[in-house]
């Protein structure tokens, strides 16, 4: 790639990233279409479309499905992004739902500093060749979220976020208390601080399909307030970009127009949109587009977007150019999908 990341290891290790606030334990599974019988091998539904067509055909009949469990592992945007960023060499601190009282065993493998304020959620991830379907129960906290965060960090949460080179607020959509926590980060850590454009605020809303237009307006406006203090980067996948555009009634027909419209309307510094085939970075400098390396038979898809985002965070704090940032994110994510494990810095230089 010509980015010479191996020569910048010391600089990478000096960059402080603080992430919040989710955490899940994922059961990764594939849905069995035909069980094994004699010489006939087991067959799983290959795509979301094929699975959906099967379910539609069972309307008014009911059905029973078998899950082929592949793994039980840490999950959620914070753990995936944080672990990947830590393995890239960044100095990562996590404030998340990682265990009752202390981080659970699945999270202790993360090469990060961990603060846990609640038990993790539980989710089942159905894997397909063209994507994934997450199933998770609603999650509620027993007390005020910010008080739990402050208790878990010994009152240092505002300082941790304020002193970070990049703060990453992740998974707004799946946590009913996320808006309140994001608001408190802004009020406690940035509202009274001078603007520092060399520092970053990174955001991933996650799948916001079930959130109302009013809620989306509120969180996008909040990100715009972060942008008054730091360089604010909002990362969206294709579905999230289109859902957001419809919900807030953007007059945009194409993804680059969605990114530019979000920047203009809400004052967000940069918008990053990643799809299976292409990635776009919309900044004050213009729109940069780059084709992605499509992996027809992925080893894993769960966590692909989070690996993309982890590399995007690295590219941001290193001050890489727009094209270089997309190249780094795309390569890191595609290698993860292809191999099923997080790539190293050495892998990125090949």
Structure keywords:
single chain, alpha/beta, 9-stranded mixed β-sheet, 350 residues
Q: Which structural class fits the helix and strand makeup?
A: alpha/beta
* Proportion of residues in extended strands: 15-25%
Give the uncertain stretches in residue-range form: none
Terminal CA distance? 7 Å
Shape: globular
Q: What integer value in Å does the Rg equal? A: 20 Å
Could you estimate the helical fraction of the residues in percent? Answer: 25-40%
Number of helices: 12
> What is the spatial order of strands in the main beta sheet?
6-5-1-9-10-11-12-13-14
Major sheet characteristics: 9 strands, mixed
Write the element-wise H/E pattern from the N-terminal end onward: HEEEHEHEEEEHHEHEHEHHEEEHHH
* Total beta strands: 14
Overall pLDDT level: 94
Task: List the SSEs and their pairings.
Blueprint: H1 9-13, E1 16-20, E2 24-34, E3 43-44, H2 48-57, E4 66-75, H3 77-87, E5 91-96, E6 113-116, E7 121-128, E8 131-135, H4 145-152, H5 157-162, E9 166-170, H6 178-190, E10 200-204, H7 213-226, E11 231-237, H8 238-247, H9 255-266, E12 270-274, E13 278-283, E14 286-291, H10 304-317, H11 322-339, H12 345-349
Parallel strand pairs: 1-5, 1-9, 2-7, 5-6, 9-10, 10-11, 11-12
Antiparallel strand pairs: 2-3, 2-4, 7-8, 12-13, 13-14
Helix pairs in contact: 3-10, 6-7, 8-9, 10-11
Question: What do you see in this structure?
Answer:
The chain is α/β, with parallel strands linked by helices and 350 residues long. The chain is 36% helix and 24% strand. The protein is built from 12 helices and 14 strands. The protein has helices at 9-13, 48-57, 77-87, 145-152, 157-162, 178-190, 213-226, 238-247, 255-266, 304-317, 322-339, 345-349, and strands spanning 16-20, 24-34, 43-44, 66-75, 91-96, 113-116, 121-128, 131-135, 166-170, 200-204, 231-237, 270-274, 278-283, 286-291. It has a 9-stranded mixed β-sheet, with helices on both faces. A hairpin with a 2-residue loop joins strand 7 and strand 8. The chain is globular and about 70 Å long.
């Amino acid at each position: 790639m010509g980015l010479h990341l191996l020569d910048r290891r010391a600089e990478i290790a000096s960059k402080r990233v603080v992430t919040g606030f989710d955490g899940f334990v994922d059961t990764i599974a594939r849905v069995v279409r035909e069980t094994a019988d004699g010489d006939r091998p087991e067959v799983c539904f290959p795509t979301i479309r094929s699975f959906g067509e099967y379910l539609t055909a069972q309307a008014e009949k009911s059905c029973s499905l078998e899950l082929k469990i592949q793994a039980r592992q840490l999950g959620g945007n914070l753990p995936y992004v944080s672990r990947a960023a830590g393995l890239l060499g960044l100095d990562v601190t996590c404030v998340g739902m990682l265990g009752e009282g202390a981080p659970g065993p699945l999270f202790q493998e993360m090469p990060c500093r961990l603060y846990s304020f609640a038990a993790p959620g539980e989710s089942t991830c159905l894997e397909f060749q063209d994507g994934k379907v997450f199933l998770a129960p609603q999650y509620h906290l027993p007390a005020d979220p910010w008080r739990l965060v402050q208790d878990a960090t010994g009152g240092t949460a505002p300082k941790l976020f304020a002193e970070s080179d990049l703060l990453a607020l992740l998974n707004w959509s799946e946590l009913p208390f996320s808006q309140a926590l994001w608001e408190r980060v802004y009020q406690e850590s940035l509202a009274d601080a001078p603007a520092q454009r060399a520092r970053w605020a990174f955001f991933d809303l996650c799948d916001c399909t079930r959130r109302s237009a009013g809620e989306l307006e509120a969180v996008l406006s909040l990100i715009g307030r972060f942008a008054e203090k730091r360089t604010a980067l909002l990362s969206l996948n294709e579905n999230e970009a289109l859902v957001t555009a419809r919900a807030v009634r953007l007059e945009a027909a194409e993804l680059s127009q969605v990114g530019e419209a979000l920047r203009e309307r809400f004052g967000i510094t940069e918008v990053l949109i990643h799809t299976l085939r292409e990635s776009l970075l919309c900044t004050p400098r213009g729109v940069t587009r780059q084709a992605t390396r499509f992996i027809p038979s992925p080893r894993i898809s769960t966590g692909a977007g989070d690996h993309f985002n982890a590399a995007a965070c690295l590219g941001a704090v290193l001050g890489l150019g727009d094209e270089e940032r997309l190249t780094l994110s795309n390569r890191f994510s595609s290698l993860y999908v292809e191999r099923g494990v997080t790539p190293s810095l050495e892998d990125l230089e090949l």
